[in-house]
Design brief:
- The chain has a five-stranded mixed sheet with strand order 2-1-5-3-4, sandwiched between helices.
- Helix 2 (87-94) crosses helix 5.
- The termini are far apart.
- The chain has 158 residues and is α+β, with helices and mostly antiparallel strands.
- 34% of the residues lie in helices and 17% in strands.
Length: 158
């Protein structure tokens, strides 16, 4: 059975028909054609599918699409402003804090969620906040440096 679901996606109102068993991840990738959010484990353990729902960090593989009704969802695609990358995205490029790319969108979304709550985190706080995002390629040091550099830049711009 398909359900009519209306929500805000990356700042725009959207409507979609989704099956009862479809997750938010399925809806984003299959119905909305937004493939930035990745499927890693499908159990909420890797963080590759991280999005924000009503400004709360969520594993989209664990939330049903029908639960998105009336919510505000932000994905990696909603971070840049046109061609201008978000400072986190830019710093990930500058620090080469990505390799295969599976974890990168989820890590960046999670880092943005952290910096919205704490614009001046310590390295330990960054590592703790990103502990739910697994990366098999980078070793995390470049990721942490990119987040710390972005935080510094964003504080200077504020």
């Amino acid at each position: 059975m398909k359900h009519h679901v209306s929500f805000e996606l990356n700042g725009d109102p959207v409507e979609v028909l989704c099956e009862s068993e479809q997750t938010v991840l399925d809806v984003l990738r299959d119905e909305m054609q937004l493939i930035g959010t990745k499927e890693g484990c499908s159990t909420g353990d890797c963080g590759a599918c991280s999005v924000t729902v009503d400004d709360r960090l969520v594993c989209s593989c664990l939330m049903l699409g029908v639960e998105a009704n009336g919510k505000k969802i932000t994905t990696i695609e909603g971070m840049a402003e046109g061609e201008k990358l978000h400072p986190l995205q830019q710093k990930f490029l500058e620090h080469a804090a990505l390799q295969c790319g599976i974890c990168t969108p989820g890590v960046i979304v999670a880092a943005k969620s952290l910096l919205e709550r704490n614009p001046d985190p310590t390295e330990t706080e960054v590592r703790y906040w990103l502990a739910g995002n697994l990366c098999r390629c980078t070793g995390y040091d470049k990721i942490v440096r990119a987040v710390m550099d972005a935080a510094s830049e964003m504080r200077g711009a504020a």
